[in-house]
Amino acid sequence: MITLDLESYLTETAPQTPILQLLFKDVAPSIFLEIGACEGEDSIRYLKLFPEIHLYAFEPHPGNIAKIRQNPLLVSNPRFSLFEMAVSDHEGECQFHLSSGQPEQNEQIGEWDYGNKSSSIFAPSKLMDKFVPWLKFRDSITIQSTTIQALFNEHHWPRVDFLHMDVQGAELAVLRGGLNQLQRVRSIWLEVSFHQIYEDQAKPSEIEALLASRGFLKVFEKVDSGFGDQFYVNTSAFHVTPC
User: Fold this and answer.
1) What is the pLDDT of residues 10-45, one digit of tens each?
2) pLDDT digits (tens, 9 = 90+) for 58-98
3) Where are the beta strands (DSSP E) in 1-73?
4) Is residue 173 within 8 Å of residue 112, measured between CB atoms?
5) 227 pLDDT tier (thresholds 50, 70, 90)
6) Residue 52's CB: how many other CB atoms inside 10 A?
7) Nearest CA-CA partner of 41 in 26, 57, 60, 22
8) Which of 30, 112, 113, 128 could lock onto 4 through a cystine, CB 3.0 to 4.6 A?
9) By CB neighbour count within 10 A (0-12 exposed, 13-18 middle, 19+ buried), where does 57 fall?
10) pTM of the entire structure?
11) How far apart, in whole angstroms, are the C-alpha atoms of residue 67 and residue 62?
12) Residue 118: φ, ψ to 5°
């Protein structure tokens, strides 16, 4: 039987943590963006890890927004700002497909919600049932979306030290919405899937090609059964070599 809750999740060391600590060991970062903040689990991690940063979190799922706003570790933190919207390649309204469900074979002790972490601006493809048969997409809602370009225009950030993306297939859309500002982003962490489990989902090779064209180097990749994570570093901001 698996025990998993927010407290146990926060005690784990995330794979991006050692890389971030190495990148910012000499000069403290100031601005983190978390696009797809879910319940704010990683927001809490980053705020604890770097006491100098201001973290801007973006989350459109109403249930997740409610959980963030009920979490005293976040709502009482003046270095945390929540925006109830998605980030993509356009400003305005879009459809957001809500995920839900729990894996039956893993009875949980605690309150960990597996099903709320796969919602997306992209509809699930037929492959979703093959890889995650317990995950359901029964509803969609209309939400607001913005772009990285619009955010830079609004907030006048000189740079963004770290961009965390957990956007369920919409990674390329997010990046395309900020092509002219990517040179001001110093590092990027994102989830990738080598299986097209969402409609219109970009291939990891497309994401890597776009980032490489903007001077980013992939320094970390961990993939298990076609799903994983990647870390990219802006070579104009750091002197780095591939791992």
Assistant:
1) 677 788 999 999 999 999 999 999 999 999 999 999
2) 999 999 999 999 999 999 999 999 999 999 999 999 999 99
3) 2-3, 31-35, 54-58
4) no
5) very high
6) 12
7) 57
8) 112
9) buried
10) 0.92
11) 9
12) -125, 10
What is the C-alpha to C-alpha distance for residues 185 and 172, in angstroms, rounded to an integer?
A: 15
Rounded distance between C-alpha atoms, residue 111 and residue 136, angstroms:
19
CB atoms within 10 A of CB 1: 6
Please, are residues 226 and 188 in contact by the beta-carbon 8 Å criterion? no
Residue 18 · residue 231 · CB < 8 Å: no
Q: Residue with structure tokens 């927010």?
A: 6
Tokens 């600590």 appear where? 21
SS3 (DSSP) at 157: coil
AA letter at 192 = V
Q: Are 95 and 141 in contact (CB under 8 A)?
A: yes
Check pLDDT > 70 for residue 3: no
Which tokens in the block code for residue 158?
Answer: 């000189």
Which of helix, strand or coil describes residue 163?
Answer: strand
Nearest Cα residue to 219 out of 186, 243, 235: 243
